[in-house]
Amino acid sequence: MFDRYEAGERAILVHIDFREEGEREDLVELEMLVSSAGVQSVATVVGSRTSPHPKYFVGSGKADEIAEHVKLFEADVVIFNHALSPAQERNIEKLCQCRVLDRTTLILDIFAQRARTHEGKLQVELAQLRHLSTRLIRGWTHLERQKGGIGLRGPGETQLETDRRLLRDRIKAILRRLEKVAKQREQGRRARQRNEVPTISLVGYTNAGKSTLFNRLTHAEVYAADQLFATLDPTLRRIKLDDVGNAVLADTVGFIRHLPHDLVAAFKATLEETREADILLHVVDCADERSHENIAEVQSVLTEIDADEVPQLVVMNKIDSVEGAEPRVVYDDEGMPTHVYLSAMDGRGIELLFQALTQRLASTMVHKHLALPPSAGKFRSTLYQLDCVEHEQFDDAGGWQLEVRLAKVEWQRLLKQEGDLIETFIAS
After folding, report:
1. How many domains does the chain have?
2. Is 242 annotated to bind ligand?
3. In what order do the strands lie in the sheet with 365-372?
4. Euclidean distance between CA atoms 427 and 371, whole angstroms
5. Strand, coil or helix: what is 235?
6. Are residues 319 and 223 in the same domain?
7. Is 317 a known ligand-binding residue?
8. What residue numbers bound the domain in which 63 lies?
9. Is 77 part of a structural domain of the chain?
10. What CA–CA distance (Å, rounded) separates 334 from 337?
11. Does 209 appear as a known binding residue?
12. What's the CATH number where 279 sits?
């Protein structure tokens, strides 16, 4: 059996251009992924094909070129900017005599480095095990032999079958633990919904500046860096908006082209925060020349997790990197804000974002002036329990003049409870 080398620090990158637009990857993005993984790129092999080669993914001549680069640069690992089959991965390893990683495995490795919370680590392990389970057949042919030695001879379970069973058992155990975490998250979401606290979820392409914006809005100290997938674990913080009150802001994992399906499935619980949000802040790096492609990719993932129907406010971030760009708000035909141009790094335009969020969420609020008689003390107490009284003063008859602001849903509930009586309290 051929020794599988451990991934080292020096890497040869392989990028192949395909004619099919849907199969194309981005070389710059691969370099950023490799940098984020803490690996040094020593050379890049590029080529073009109409379709992948069944044995090496690249042609045999290009495969020999990769092997020569490995010897020349004394590389420890070859990283492909594409998804390889187990057999292709195995064949290139034999040829190059070093470890071979594909794009999916590289992303999984970065996720494993970044996960901090118990839930994040479980989700990454689940994704890794699901990915590994597809590679036990052709990638590890030695495992098909039955175990030998004293007490192990004769008919029985092969090592491959043992490993498959152990993988299945571990995946089931992780799923059970993640189910408990998901229930806890659901309870938190239900509590927020009962209290009518709006949820704002940050989404966007990886490295668009979501965590920097999150820190700017909440004065938190969430880890933010100029690298892909700096944030894995979802973070929730409370913010206060004029005319709306308290709201919850959620920072989530960034998206990327051809995000492995195992990862999307593993992070389903995390992405629930996105699907259940009242509004999405779609953060875009406006200094990136591929911003339109990145927006389309984020929309694709949102569709995959059934979050494409949630209202969005697009935040065009990093105007500090665009010459002549100034903070501004773009409105639709109905006067509602759709885009906010700002810089999360230097803080320009943050006030405009708060105003735009208030305007978008205030449409779900009711603003009323009420005149309560002295006999309506119980109803006044109810309003204070809802924390919706903005101003109060006594009138000459011993009653109260109140200015209230609350969610439409809560107002409808009050109308249902109090019936026609509440209509008599509304001041003209």
Report:
1. 3
2. no
3. 365-372, 400-407, 389-394
4. 6
5. strand
6. yes
7. yes
8. 10-101
9. yes
10. 9
11. yes
12. 3.40.50.300
Q: Which of 128, 86, 88 is nearest to 107 (CA)?
A: 128
Higher pLDDT, 106 or 319: 319
- Mean pLDDT value across the chain: 77
Residue 253 counted as an annotated binding residue = yes
Question: Binding site annotation covers 104?
Answer: no
Q: Is residue 93 part of a domain?
A: yes
Residue 324 shares a structural domain with residue 376: no
Together in a domain, 206 and 311: yes
Instruction: Return d(Cα 19, Cα 24) in angstroms, integer.
Output: 8
- Indicate the angle between helix axes 268-275 and 118-133, nearest 10 degrees: 120
Residue 149 neighbours by CB distance under 10 Å: 6
Residue 289 maps to a domain: yes
Last residue of some domain: 329, 363, 397?
Answer: 363
Ligand-binding annotation for 38, yes or no, is no
> Longest Cα pair distance anywhere in the chain, in angstroms?
99
Residue 230, annotated as binding a ligand = yes
* 47 known member of a binding site: no
DSSP classification of residue 426: B
* Lookup result for tokens 């089959």: 85
User: Would you say 396 is a known binding-site residue?
Assistant: no
> Are residues 38 and 72 located together in one domain of the fold?
yes
- C-alpha 203/C-alpha 276 separation (Å) is 13
233 is in an annotated binding site: yes
Mean pLDDT of 341-346: 91
At residue 419, does pLDDT exceed 60? yes
**390 and 291 belong to one structural domain:** no
**Any binding-site annotation on 232?**
yes
Is residue 421 domain-shared with residue 334, that is, in the same domain? no
Asked whether residue 225 falls in the same domain as residue 307, the answer is yes
Determine if residue 126 is labeled as part of a ligand binding site: no
| Residue 26 assigned to a binding site | no
Is 205 annotated to bind a ligand? Reply is yes
131-180 pLDDT, tens digit per residue, is 777 666 544 444 444 444 444 444 555 666 777 778 888 888 888 887 78
Consult the annotation and say whether 172 binds a ligand: no
Q: Are residues 290 and 354 in the same domain?
A: yes
In this structure, the number of other CB atoms found within 10 A of the CB of residue 75 comes to: 24
DSSP states of 323-373 as a string?
TT---EEEE-TTS-EEEEE--TTT-TTHHHHHHHHHHHHHTTEEEEEEEE-
251 located within any domain: yes
* Chosen domain end from 101, 126, 151: 101
Whole-number Å distance between alpha carbons of 104 and 128: 10
Annotated binding-site residue? 139:
no
Cβ atoms within 10 Å of 203's Cβ, excluding its own: 28
The answer to whether the annotation marks 419 as part of a ligand binding site is no
